Amino acid sequence: MRSSRTRASVIMGCLDVRSPATGPWRSRDYLYSQAGEAPGAEWGAYVSSLVVAQGSRRQGVGIALIHAAKAAAAEHWGAAWLCTHVAADNTAASALYAKCGFEALRDNSLEQPALSGAAELGGPRATYYASTL
């Protein structure tokens, strides 16, 4: 998104969404194995990163990025759901995803291979979220 307040272009936020063909999040079976339940669709996409500039927070930038990611995942990849995970103590991110229609699955970061090392080193636990498109 670009700010119309100044003449210079300003990056207010960015989102990285992965197609069903990349990473381990490519199938409903994988989501079942990691989160214990699935949003009921065959193929999904994964939000691996969502960042909003400090000065642009609480202005709808994150919501707009998530809605754009949902539309792009459905249109370009035929995804029927979108999922992500956030640190369990990140209440702002959890509230944002809930506001965008995501449902929390279950807290299971110790079972997630990508996060198990972080958890063993005292890193944050994660909560998985999913939303049908």
UniProtKB/TrEMBL annotation:
* Top-level lineage group: Eukaryota
Q: Which GO terms describe its molecular function?
A: acyltransferase activity, transferring groups other than amino-acyl groups
Q: Which Pfam families match?
A: Acetyltransf_1 (PF00583)
Q: Which Gene3D superfamilies match?
A: 3.40.630.30
The N-acetyltransferase domain extends over: 1-133
Indicate what this protein is called per its UniProt record: N-acetyltransferase domain-containing protein
Organism from which the protein derives: Elliptochloris bilobata
